[in-house]
Write a structure and sequence with these properties.
15 helices, 9 strands, heme binding, heme, iron ion binding
């Protein structure tokens, strides 16, 4: 990834992070191994992706199109429409792949249990699928369908969100050099002059300031700008009844700009997330990964990915944003994308005195 970026020192971030050797490819390869315990092999070739990857991309496009077309909101009309039929085909590709992996994983686990002790198995790093299967084996009420839905959610939800978060974080750092210098100093204290060392879990835990930078970036530009919920029981809010079955839309983008909770909300200020400034904050005032029992299943994994990738990029480059912050326009789809891209200049960090 970094080698690719070195060959393109003036680049549009979304393109840089979405091509064949980009973060999104690494993100999905890593995700597939961490979630399902297998590689989605053809992800390495972005020009010729697997049917699974193509189906994921197409489903996201269909969901976005359906949001703005009231004529296919009713499920019956949607299922009868050409778009709905294409959605069903894509969904079948996803389900067939995940169900195949679950079946094969069950067989593998059964074979391993005959040769390996439970103790040795627990010492290994296990994929999310293995943990879910283990939970099911231990008598919890978790069907194969439940497991498939959790795995599909993890894979689809994490498809673009990491790339979006990285793009906005680098864009904001490119406009706030004083903050970027602090990030560089923190990374230099952890890695020294070694720009190629892989970050360990201990290294990631030491990235306290970068953690705050990412959180502040997600406050201003949450990857998923709109969350949907269905009301299960009649609920009274401010004297008005929200009926059961009502569809509720929540916008983290606007919620995170409440000046009562976040003074000067348009200012990029990572210190908002220092422990002394955030411990007393209402936990529902900041929800980049949603909140409550249906929050994002992959939020901890996502934060680790972001820190790994951003620390690797920022060890190697100083970012200079070329687009004025007040001129950037974005589109709200499943994720919050820059409408015309984000142009930056990448300055190699050969001199450690910067």
């Amino acid at each position: 990834m970094v080698l690719s970026m070195r060959s393109e020192l003036a680049c549009e971030l979304w393109h840089c992070l979405s091509n064949a050797t980009s973060c999104i490819v690494q993100n999905n390869t890593a995700s597939s191994e961490s979630v399902m315990g297998v590689k989605v092999n053809a992800l390495i070739n972005y020009e010729s992706p697997t049917p699974y990857v193509t189906a994921v991309e197409r489903i996201k496009e269909i969901i976005h199109r359906r949001m703005y077309n009231v004529f296919i909101w009713p499920n019956l009309l949607f299922r009868l429409s050409p778009t709905g039929q294409e959605h069903a085909k894509c969904l079948k590709i996803l389900h067939d792949f995940t169900e195949k992996v679950i079946r094969e994983r069950k067989i593998t686990r059964k074979q391993k249990s005959q040769h390996e002790s439970v103790v040795s198995e627990k010492k290994k790093h296990r994929a999310l699928l293995d943990l879910l299967l283990e939970t099911s084996d231990n008598g919890k009420n978790l069907s194969d369908s439940d497991i498939r839905e959790e795995v599909d959610t993890f894979m689809i939800a994490g498809h673009d969100t990491t790339t979006v978060s990285i793009s906005w974080t680098l864009f904001l750092l490119g406009h706030n050099q004083d903050i970027q210098i602090k990030v560089h100093k923190e990374l230099d204290s952890i890695f020294g002059d070694d720009q190629s060392k892989h970050a360990t879990i201990d290294d990631l835990k030491r990235m306290k300031y970068l953690d705050c930078v990412i959180k502040e970036s997600q406050r201003l530009y949450p990857s998923v700008p709109i969350l949907g919920r269905e009301v299960k029981t009649d609920t009274i809010i401010d004297g008005k009844t929200v009926p059961s079955g009502a569809q509720i839309l929540i916008s983290p983008y606007f919620l995170h700009r409440d000046p009562v909770v976040f003074p000067n909300p348009e200012i990029f200020d990572p210190s908002r997330f220092f422990p002394e400034n955030s411990l007393s904050r209402n936990p529902f005032a900041y929800i980049p990964f949603s909140a409550g029992p249906r929050n994002c299943i992959g939020q901890k994994f996502a934060m680790l990915q972001l820190k790994v990738i951003l620390s690797r990029v920022l060890r190697s480059f100083t970012i200079e944003s070329l687009d004025p912050q007040d001129k950037i326009k974005f589109t709200i789809e499943i994720v919050i994308k820059p409408k015309h891209g984000i142009n930056v200049h990448l300055v190699p960090r050969n001199n450690r005195n910067d």
